[in-house]
Amino acid sequence: MGVPFRLHGREPATGLDCLGLVGRALEDCGRSVRYPQGYRLRNTDIAPWLGFAARNGLRSCADPVRRGDVLLMQPGPAQHHLLIALGDTRFVHAHAGLRRVVIQHFPSPQPPLAQWRLDPDPEQIWQR
Question: Which residues are CB-contacts of 7 (< 8 A; sequence separation ≥ 6)?
Answer without folding.
Answer: 17, 40, 41, 96
